[in-house]
Design goal:
With 251 residues, this protein is an alpha+beta fold. The protein has ten helices and eight strands. A four-stranded antiparallel beta sheet has the order 1-2-4-3. Strands 5-6-8-7 form a four-stranded antiparallel beta sheet. Helix 4 packs across helix 5, helix 4 packs across helix 7 and helix 7 crosses helix 8.
Length: 251
């Protein structure tokens, strides 16, 4: 993009009777550009990309928001636009596909591709508008800055709390099977019981998860750990049954 003064200097040389070839060689500006300035001196105004509006699918957005808060990031393209990247472990191919499907449902016009990393796939998509779709984007790590939902995001999460919880569990959570032994009638028997865990260093993201769990009637507790990250545990039988009905293990 050449400024107006540069354009005027090039046209002044043409006005002296110089050929477009000689002016192009002297100024290192293409002949086609100089020729176009003879018809229009001022640069054309830049057209801002059109705002695509709200997510096309709110249910898919609630799930994608959970994935983004757990294992997602947005980075600027060197020239313009942004990349959305969601890291999904190689061990869960179904999760990788579901993440890609959610992105397309939220923004049908975008393209999605997989970038293989060590031990995981970065499900990636380019758009001018990812920071608008995820206003939690900002400099630094998520746990080092405030993470709060915009009112329109909160409305979507309130309408689809299970999809939001599911996205968070699929990113930074897991379903495991614990076991113990008990003495019954003089015989020691093994008992297995499932439970869910979610671990994150951001207290704001922990708060968003526990608020959603409260909303759907899931009982939870915080584990005592000697580290910065916080782990939420869901272990009561009725609550695990609810989680199994709406989330289940990764696949």
């Amino acid at each position: 993009m050449y400024d107006v003064s540069t354009r005027k200097r090039a046209l002044a040389l043409v006005a002296q009777g110089r050929s477009l070839n000689s002016v192009s060689r002297e100024t290192d500006i293409s002949r086609s550009a100089i020729r176009s300035w003879q018809d229009r001196l001022a640069p054309l105004p830049r057209i801002a990309p059109q705002d695509p509006g709200p997510p096309a699918d709110n249910e898919a957005y609630a799930y994608l928001l959970g994935l983004y808060l757990g294992d997602g990031c947005i980075s600027a393209h060197p020239r313009s636009g942004y990349y959305l990247r969601i890291a999904c472990a190689d061990a869960w191919p179904g999760l990788i596909q579901e993440c890609a499907d959610a992105i397309v449902k939220v923004r049908p016009a975008v393209r999605v591709y997989h970038a293989q990393k060590q031990g995981c796939v970065a499900v990636t998509s380019y758009s001018q508008h990812w920071p608008t779709i995820f206003p939690q984007h900002g400099p630094g790590r998520k746990h080092e800055r405030e993470i709060a939902l915009a009112p329109w995001q909160q409305a979507i999460v309130d309408a689809h709390p299970w999809e939001f919880i599911r996205g968070l569990i699929h990113s930074d959570g897991c379903r495991i099977t614990n076991w113990t032994t008990r003495l019954v009638g003089g015989e020691r028997k093994r008992y297995e019981y499932p439970r869910y865990f979610f671990t994150n260093t951001s207290t704001d993201i922990i708060r968003l998860l526990t608020a959603a769990l409260d909303r759907v009637g899931v009982e939870w507790k915080t584990l005592n750990q000697n580290r910065a990250a916080v782990t939420i545990s869901v272990a009561r039988k009725a609550s695990v049954a609810l989680m199994d009905a709406h989330i289940g293990p990764k696949y």
